[in-house]
Write a structure and sequence with these properties.
Length: 208
């Protein structure tokens, strides 16, 4: 048998093994080239950054009749779209309704929903609430005339219902006295003030 014939015979003997090796290599390449299952899709990442920021800005709210109800001024106002929330630095809040109820508040910072219906003021917060002439503040069963001055660390203000609440210590000042409490609920429409927790202070009879 010649050398050429021996080489052909050897190749024929090894052909099944070569085919098997080639098939295995092709299968490995096919697996690597196929799209891989990345598992369940990742949730879309929600941005925690404001979509706009204003300096020395004002946000106003009007009722359906076009009457001005509340105005929020801030040294800086940032809007966060996910919760439709405003964050305000050096905040000033002014609100008034057709009955003559007025509210003026200042604080180092505040939060409000997009339409300024609910406002949270915090950081050395001070509020002056002037009831309508037909509603005088009632504390301890006695009606007090004139504006009420409130101070505390944080207040929640419902500018539609004209209700102020706080779950932290507050001070109520009036021309007839001064009262301290751990919690507060003040309704401008009725003039009723509820102080809870440890309450102390003094007030005189309502002025004539």
């Amino acid at each position: 048998m010649t050398l050429f014939e021996r080489a052909v015979a050897q190749l024929q003997a090894n052909l099944p093994m070569l085919l098997a090796a080639g098939l295995a290599g092709f299968t490995w390449w096919l697996i690597q080239a196929s799209p891989k299952d990345m598992g369940p899709p990742r949730p879309t990442r929600v941005s925690t950054r404001p979509d706009y920021e204003l300096s020395e800005a004002t946000v106003a709210r009007f009722d359906p009749q076009g009457r001005l109800q509340a105005v929020v001024d801030g040294q800086a106002i940032r809007h966060y779209p996910v919760e439709d929330e405003l964050q305000i630095d050096a905040m000033v809040l002014s609100a008034r309704d057709e009955k003559g109820q007025a509210l003026h508040a200042v604080a180092r910072e505040g939060q409000a929903n997009g339409r300024a219906e609910v406002v949270v003021i915090k950081g050395g917060a001070k509020v002056v609430a002037t009831p309508a002439s037909s509603a005088n503040p009632i504390v301890g069963g006695k009606a007090l005339r004139g504006p009420v001055r409130l101070s505390g660390e944080i207040f929640r203000v419902d500018t539609q219902a004209h209700v102020l609440t706080s779950d932290q210590p507050v001070t109520l000042q009036h021309e007839s006295g001064e009262i301290h409490g751990d919690q507060l609920r003040y309704e401008q429409q009725t003039g009723i003030t509820e102080l809870q927790g440890r309450v102390k202070g003094f007030y005189e009879g309502a002025p004539r």
